[in-house]
Every structure is written in structure tokens, then in C-alpha cells.
Design brief:
Elements lengths: L1 E8 L2 E8 L6 H11 L3 E2 L9 E3 L4 E6 L6 E2 L4 E7 L2 E6 L4 E6 L6 E2 L4 E5 L1
Length: 118
């Protein structure tokens, strides 16, 4: 069965599609793809409608939404910690969460994509 993964490694975003052999874990398969050197680098989603980006550089302390969640304007999407300050990243429109690009504990740079809303 083929699976598609978005992997962030040292701040670079990679799209990896692998077919997981019987009995192998998806993580082992993705790691073997990286070790083989056959990796396609992809750019973050374009700036535009629906892409919510990090306003600051910091560590993601909480992801408050998941794929498929409906959000209202002003809903908290992500919390980012930087220099002992927590910044709430809120939705500027209502919509449905299409993609979540970050996980709790991840380090993000200002401008990195966090969430895509439809």
C-alpha cells in the first residue's frame, strides 16, 4: 500500500511517497527512502488564501486543531513559545482544516506554514 508523507528535516520540507512492504513500519520505510538519497524536495504551500503561517520563530507548544476540524474566525489554531512568551496563532477566517504541517515540540521559523484552511 502506498502512503504519502510530508517530512520536515532541518527546516526543509520533503514529500515522500512510499510503498510499505508487508510487515515493515511506515517509519522504517521513510527512513530507508531518506538513506537512499531519492528524495524530492517540495516548497511549502504558496502564500495565499487559507495558509496560516508562523508569526514568530519558536517552538510549537500546542496544536489545537486537527485535519477536518471546522474553525471559526478567531479560533486558536496553534500556540508557539518564544523567549518565555506564548503566542496564540488564531484563524482569520472560518473554514475547515485541510492540512496541519506542524506537530507539538517542533521548531518553526517565522513564515513557516502551520495550517491550511479551506
Amino acid at each position: 500500500m502506498k502512503k504519502r508523507f510530508i517530512v520536515v528535516l532541518d527546516g526543509e520540507v520533503y514529500e515522500v511517497e512510499v510503498e510499505t512492504p508487508e510487515g515493515a513500519s511506515p517509519l522504517e520505510t521513510v527512513l530507508s527512502v531518506f538513506q537512499s538519497g531519492v528524495v524530492k524536495r517540495v516548497e511549502p504551500p504558496p502564500v495565499g488564501k487559507g495558509v496560516v503561517r508562523a508569526p514568530i520563530t519558536g517552538r510549537v507548544s500546542k496544536v489545537a486543531v486537527g485535519r477536518g476540524d471546522r474553525v471559526e474566525k478567531g479560533s486558536t489554531l496553534v500556540l508557539i513559545e518564544s523567549m518565555k512568551t506564548v503566542v496564540e496563532v488564531k484563524s482569520d477566517a472560518e473554514g475547515v482544516v485541510e492540512e496541519v504541517y506542524v506537530k507539538e515540540g517542533a521548531t518553526v521559523r517565522q513564515g513557516d506554514p502551520l495550517i491550511r484552511l479551506s
